[in-house]
Amino acid sequence: MDKVIVSAALTGAATFREQTPYVPITPEEIAEQAYESWKSGASIVHIHVRDEDGTPSMNFEKFRKVVLLIRNKCDVLINLTTSGGIGLSDEERIKPFYELKPEIASFDAGTINWQHRTVFENRPEFLEKLANKMREVNVKPEIEIFDTGMIYNTMYYAKMGLIDDPKYFQFVLGAPGGMIGTVKNLLHLKESLPDGAIWSAFGIGKSNLPIMYATLALGGNIRVGLEDNIYYSKGILAKSNAQLVKRAIRVITEFGKKPATPDETRKILGLRKGL
Ligand code: ZN
């Protein structure tokens, strides 16, 4: 395949203004950076929202506003997080995608210790409920993999008929508590995938560029953005998500491939036509 899907993870739950003034926080800022990322060549934007003071949030109204603002501006595919914080109820995590029906929502395929501080909890009954609700409203799960066992966990739900083909995996490398961001780990994950899976990967922090280049070499799709990495180069902050997207597009093009358009991405992921 000569098309590469570029996702832009704009805000996240752990990038703060104290670290970088460029992370978008308000719905308007998030929508603006989504638009700029789309203009720069991203076909998916991954969305988190924040309270006014920047605290990670699953506030439904904020999600509604962001989705509306983005939909009014462009046809980029929207991927809403289901993990905008710790200690949330199942309902808080499900409501945004269930009501707003983005093309994609995140499906974190297991529980891990998080940042050596807390537990990122995705209980079996929650994952079953999550998969069911996504199928109900035809939202594609982006299966986030922090450790190899999560691939096998996903296969359990697929066997139950809860996750449809083509399965869409996102490898998260370099999160404290998960797999570290090495090319060896990336290769191992890729080789552990079921046949026919679509996959994408990113490295957090300093593993960002090595994992991006290795992913491209291994035939995967790419995610960039301030959720995962706030630097453009050593010690130099990225000025926007679009700046990181633009570099990814240049790298893809130099490599001899092409970024997938939103419609091509819909086709690759087997999604319904845009709303
Ligand atoms: Zn996220």
Percent of residues in helical segments? 25-40%
Secondary-structure element sequence?
Answer: EEHEEEHEHEEEHEHEHEHEEEHEH
Strand residues, percent: 15-25%
Number of helices: 9
How large, in whole angstroms, is the Cα Rg? 17 Å
Assembly type: single chain
Mean pLDDT: 96
**What's the β-strand tally?**
16
N- and C-termini, Cα separation: 26 Å
Structural class: alpha/beta
Q: Catalogue the unreliable spans.
A: none
What global shape is seen?
globular
Could you explain how this protein is built, in words?
The longest helix has 15 residues. The strands form five sheets. An eight-stranded parallel beta barrel has the order 2-3-6-7-10-11-12-13, surrounded by eight helices. A two-stranded parallel sheet has the order 1-16. The model has no long low-confidence stretch (mean pLDDT 96). 48% of the residues are buried. By secondary structure, it is an alpha/beta fold. α3 links the parallel β6 and β7. The chain is globular. The chain contains nine helices and 16 strands. The protein binds zinc ion (ZN). Zinc ion (ZN) binds next to loops.
Task: Summarize this structure briefly.
This protein is of the alpha/beta class and 275 residues long. Helix content is 38%, strand content 21%.
What descriptive keywords fit this protein?
16 strands; binds zinc ion; eight-stranded parallel β-barrel; 9 helices; 275 residues; single chain; alpha/beta; two-stranded parallel ribbon; globular
